[in-house]
Amino acid sequence: KKRYNITLLPGDGIGPEVISIAKNVLQQAGSLEGVEFSFREMPVGGASLDLVGLPLPEDTISAAKDSDAVLLGAIGGYKWDKNEKHLKPETGLLQLRAALKVFANLRPATVLPQWTLKREVAEGVDLMVVRELTGVCDHVSCQGALRLMKMTARKRRGKSCSVDKANVLDASILWRRRVTALAAEYPDVELSHMYVDNAAMQLVRDPKQFDTIVTNNIFGDILSDEASMITGSIGMLPSASLSDSGPGLFEPIHGSAPDIAGQDKANPLATILSAAMLLKYGLGEEKAAKRIEDAVLGALNKGFRTGDIYSNGTKLVGCKEMGEEVLKSVDSQVHAS
Ligand code: NAD
Ligand code: IPM
Ligand code: MN
């Protein structure tokens, strides 16, 4: 039987709500594939500031580094917004990513068949924003770009759109030159270039033109939030942050949503799907990952919707009930198979 150590970092706001659900789903999907997990929960962000006065204690760093994968909820909240920079929850997250050297941030945006809003534009969208995660907008991020291209070039449909601002920024000129040079090594990958302002517009106009969008830290942050609305809600989008070796970090792309925290309103699907990415990209457990993805589809097919994705004729549920339905849906696969 395979056994993995998973570090859970619930964090702040809706983080703990969505992590406790994703943990159960992970456990259930794993058990159907002969995969066992030991979980270790550690503090990060504001919760950690309150506990020990630091947004990322040494113990959390070492637990994360020693594990096979890390699943994070979200950090941040009004309470800590006025803290000095080094004592902000956000700093803890940035430090964690740096400590794990997770330079590549994969943010898929897949429109599920149940989604009905803007049907003609959205139907069939399946794109991935690959965001350089640990660099600032300087030469460092070019290094990241090369590694990103290598990591993703052949994994999807073989189309890669590099997004930059080479008409204005020196760093972008260098980025484009390096990306173009690297593309020569991958003749089977179709490379195109787009300026970031145009990319922002094209994402809304015709998102289906994209397969993989490869871009730097800041552009990737912004474009992935934008891409989330094509799928219906930021509450749907997972992410994987990967390094060359060592544990990956898996988290929803949304924040701690203080406006709805503690009210059982959060959509847990982004975190549940992050657990699926943990299995697929972190542990190579594709079958268990598929079980989670199918279970999410199952719950949506039955009409279950949290408030952020609710529309007429569907069934409005809270965070817990959505989580329970996904769990049931994983469970029903036992009888189906
Ligand atoms: P946010 O993503 O927390 O929330 C933006 C909006 O989306 C809110 O209206 C919120 O209710 C909604 N939303 C987000 N996740 C949802 C979910 N799962 N289900 C339903 N609705 C959801 O962004 P923000 O308000 O700009 O930031 C709030 C805090 O989160 C800040 O402290 C910020 O720094 C932090 N943040 C953390 C991360 C992270 O941990 N990775 C990411 C973004 C923001
Ligand atoms: C994200 C967030 C973080 C980022 C912040 C909270 C540091 O916006 O994960 O998308 O900029 O990476
Ligand atoms: Mn963001």
TrEMBL record:
Q: What is its EC number?
A: 1.1.1.85
Q: Which Pfam families match?
A: Iso_dh
Taxonomically, the superkingdom here is: Eukaryota
- Which top EC class applies here? oxidoreductase
Q: Which InterPro entries match?
A: IsoCit/isopropylmalate_DH_CS, IsoPropMal-DH-like_dom, Isopropylmalate_DH
Sorted keywords for this record are:
Amino-acid biosynthesis, Branched-chain amino acid biosynthesis, Leucine biosynthesis, Magnesium, Metal-binding, NAD, Oxidoreductase
Cofactor names from the entry are: Mn(2+); Mg(2+)
Enumerate the spans annotated as Isopropylmalate dehydrogenase-like domain. 5-326
The annotated subunit structure for this chain is: Homodimer.
Record-stated family: Belongs to the isocitrate and isopropylmalate dehydrogenases family.
Q: Which protein, by its recorded name, is this? A: 3-isopropylmalate dehydrogenase
